[in-house]
Design goal:
By secondary structure, the protein is mainly alpha-helical. 50% of the residues lie in helices and 5% in strands. It has 18 helices and eight strands. The strands form four sheets. The protein has a two-stranded antiparallel sheet with strand order 1-5. The chain has a two-stranded antiparallel sheet with strand order 2-3. Strands 4-8 form a two-stranded antiparallel ribbon. Helix 7 runs antiparallel to helix 8 and helix 8 runs antiparallel to helix 10.
């Protein structure tokens, strides 16, 4: 992760509030600074905004790590390395073995709630600034993490909290996606009306391309919500030549590498099938396989994590160019009436893409699909390509549902609500069957 400026480090230590254990909780620490003290100036508010990135993308308690973990086990992307890791064992086993005590899921829930809370405070502070160019930087940066948090919860649970606070009500996960899109729309409007000035941009992460990320996440969550016109338009706004990444260093390491890759004690990829059924397994000539999967012939397991979790300083993209191409392919294939020719064109952009043509080196470099494909055939191939292109991204469980994959291909459909929420919020919905 980018090293913070000294003033941000100091302000961050004072500003970040204690993580709560449930949405009923107010995110307050009697020994910490009050919100009035924390948001007393632009630099302190900027430190809180930067803290959102730290909360989201570092350590094994982060939503980023936990999403790869939980999603990977239940969609068969990952194998368990140590049955003594009880939360992971639950997820690897699946079904009723996954219960409300699972700390991997609790980390996603509580950290996401905390990030939404802090992002709301940053946005509220920014809305009161007279310097609208500084304000737009804070609003747009904080909105990235607010939208990610709402979207991630919507991928894993049937219903999500409508907000944060005391005894909050719940909304459907589809409304959660729509809420994330609304957050992103407001951020895009603020950014374009008053582009962030050099001062605020110098204080935020230079590795995140804010505007492109806002459009990319809007495309992702609009697609998940079934709004194909909006998803297509948003994906077309993304400049695929620009990187947008979480960066790491020796102190703040890549969380998947730190907890899994380096230890070989939590999980590893299942094998070169990437967990796909026989009919959808990757072509062994697909150059994305050696990108994502390493081979160790001397020490078990044979298949090892590579890709975006290969080292402690490997950058993790917030989205991939291939994801935007596949969003467009899916949107064309699903809209009414479908445009199957355009869908195939976008799909073939991914299939034929060489590693050298991708800013992250992700490329299949395979011959294009030819012939007249039906809508069903195209959608099946889009699912297959998403599963390969976006391996270990945390998105496959949502894809499985959206593409109507058999329940036998996954170990859970939705997750139980953490006890932290149920014990503190009487509005918590009943747990799903599985």
């Amino acid at each position: 992760m980018k090293k913070l400026n000294p003033y941000i480090l100091g302000a961050f230590a004072v500003a970040i509030l204690l993580i709560s254990t449930g949405c009923k909780k107010e995110f307050k620490n009697p020994n910490a600074a009050t919100e009035e003290e924390t948001f007393s100036n632009d630099r302190a508010a900027t430190a809180v905004a930067m803290g959102l990135q730290r909360q989201y993308a570092t350590t094994a308690a982060s939503p980023l790590y936990a999403l790869v973990n939980a999603n990977g086990f239940v969609t068969n992307e990952l194998i368990l390395r140590n049955a003594g890791n009880i939360p992971e064992l639950q997820l690897f086993t699946g079904g009723s073995a996954v219960d409300a005590t699972n700390t991997v899921l609790a980390n996603i829930w509580t950290r996401s709630s905390k990030i939404i809370y802090d992002a709301n405070n940053v946005i509220a502070y920014a809305n009161g600034l007279t310097d609208k160019s500084y304000a737009s930087g804070l609003i747009s940066f904080a909105s990235i993490f607010k939208a990610l948090s709402i979207g991630n919860m919507s991928m894993l649970w049937e219903q999500v909290p409508d907000t944060v606070g005391q005894n909050v009500s719940f909304i459907s996960r589809m409304d959660g996606y729509r809420k994330a899109v609304d957050v992103l729309n407001r951020a895009i409007a603020a950014y374009t009306a008053n582009p962030p000035n050099a001062q605020v941009l110098s204080r935020l992460s230079s590795d995140i391309d804010i505007l492109n990320t806002l459009h990319a996440l809007k495309a992702r969550y609009a697609l998940f919500a079934g709004d194909y016109t909006t998803a297509l338009a948003a994906a077309n706004m993304v400049d695929l030549t620009k990187k947008s990444v979480f960066s790491y260093d020796a102190i703040n390491q890549n969380p998947v590498f730190e907890s899994a890759t380096a230890t070989n004690n939590v999980f590893q990829p299942i094998d070169s099938s990437l967990g796909l059924p026989d009919a959808l397994e990757p072509n062994l000539a697909d150059k994305r396989i050696p990108f994502y999967i390493g081979i160790n012939t001397s020490i078990a397991p044979r298949y090892r994590i590579r890709g975006f979790y290969a080292t402690g300083t490997t950058q993790i993209p917030l989205y991939l160019p291939g994801e935007m191409m596949l969003i467009k392919a899916e949107a064309y294939a699903r809209m009414s009436p479908p445009n199957l020719t355009a869908a195939l064109t976008e799909l073939n952009r991914v299939i034929t893409k060489k590693p050298s043509e991708d800013i992250y080196g992700v490329g299949a470099d395979l011959p294009p699909l030819t012939g007249l494909l039906t809508q069903e055939q195209l959608l099946t191939e889009i699912y297959r390509q998403r599963s390969i292109e976006l391996f270990m991204s945390g998105l496959r469980l949502e894809d499985m549902r959206r593409f109507g994959r058999p329940l036998s291909e996954r170990k859970r459909n939705f997750f139980p609500y953490p006890f932290q929420e149920r014990d503190n919020n009487p509005n918590t919905p009943p747990d799903p069957a599985g």
